[in-house]
Amino acid sequence: MRSVRQCSRSACARPAVATLTYVYADSTAVLGPLAQLAEPHSYDLCAEHAERLTAPRGWEVVRLLPDFEPAAPSHDDLLALADAVREAGRPAFAVLEPEPVAQPATPDGRRRGHLRVVHGEESVR
């Protein structure tokens, strides 16, 4: 299931549509379509920030796609949504009643608890 990633820019909550990667050896910023997986050394940008991107002086910006638009929902997205709805409708866990445990009785007929007092020589064994 593909998750919706947000723009990496501060205070921007719009969905990401492009991925920005820097190639430091070539002084190049590469702006391309949104990567399948989020990488720690790349930045996801919304359409507005992708369009307004500028590079530092002496750097070149390579744009792999001229227009960045949010991707339309795919067949996989619809299946993932249906699975999520199905999962949400299931009970979180089955409630089972514990079966009563028979307690052994003492010779005088009283129930015996799980703790008992051990006297003298019995405690040495």
Task: Describe the model.
- With 125 residues, this protein is α+β, with helices and mostly antiparallel strands.
- It has one domain (1-89).
- It is elongated.
- The mean pLDDT is 78.
- It has a four-stranded mixed beta sheet with strand order 3-1-2-4.
- It has helices at 47-51, 75-89; strands at residues 18-23, 28-33, 42-45, 60-63.
- It is built from two helices and four strands.
Question: How far apart lie the N and C ends?
Answer: 62 Å
Helix proportion:
10-25%
Q: What's the structural domain tally?
A: 1
Order of helices and strands: EEEHEH
Count of individual helical segments: 2
Which parts are unreliable, with pLDDT below 50 for 5 consecutive residues or more?
none
Query: What would you call the shape?
Result: elongated
Strand count: 4
**Structural class by sheet pairing and helices:** alpha+beta
Profile the largest sheet. 4 strands, mixed
